[in-house]
Amino acid sequence: MYQNLELFQTSGAMARHAGSRQAVVAQNIANADTPGFRALQVPSFSEAVKNSGVGAMKMTRSNHLQGDTKAAVVARVTVSAAEPAPNGNSVSIEDEMLHSVEVTREHSRALAIYRHGLTVIRATLGR
Q1: What value does the mean pLDDT of the chain take?
Q2: What's the predicted TM-score (pTM) here?
Q3: Phi, psi values for residue 78, rounded to 5°
Q4: What separation, in Å, do the N-terminal and C-terminal C-alpha atoms of the chain show?
Q5: Among 6, 26, 61, 84, who pairs with 90 as Cys (CB 3.0-4.6 Å)?
Q6: Which residues fall within 8 angstroms of residue 28, CB to CB, at 6 or more apart?
Q7: Contacts for 1 with CB less than 8 Å, ≥ 6 apart
Q8: Which residues contact 14 (CB under 8 A, 6 or more apart)?
Q9: Contact at 8 Å (CB) between 124 and 12?
Q10: Are the C-beta atoms of 35 and 88 separated by less than 8 Å?
Q11: Cβ-Cβ contacts under 8 Å for 22 (sequence gap 6 or more)
Q12: Which has the minimum average pLDDT: 31-40, 47-56, 103-112?
């Protein structure tokens, strides 16, 4: 029942996005000493939503005027614009640590939204 609510879909998408960002951060840290490795990055969830068209008018029935039936937030991995070291590696451990903290906060925010939604549903059911 609650899987169809947009609040839960959005919080799930936020958590999945945070997971993919954390995987990219881990890959960057693992390759910090690899010569020629270019650091990768994934934009924050809010930036990804802005660029994906989510939140625009939606079409829920075929007779509605122009709108998307279902827009998805896609985590696009891009090469970082950081200046590479002499060996060609552009990974900065300090930057990756900051990205990791940001990703942790995004994931915690997604879980908090999900928990709050469950609390509201429980309250409406009288439990």
Answers
A1: 83
A2: 0.76
A3: -125, 160
A4: 17
A5: 84
A6: 39, 40, 91, 96
A7: none
A8: 45, 106, 107, 109, 110, 113
A9: no
A10: yes
A11: 100, 103, 104, 107
A12: 47-56
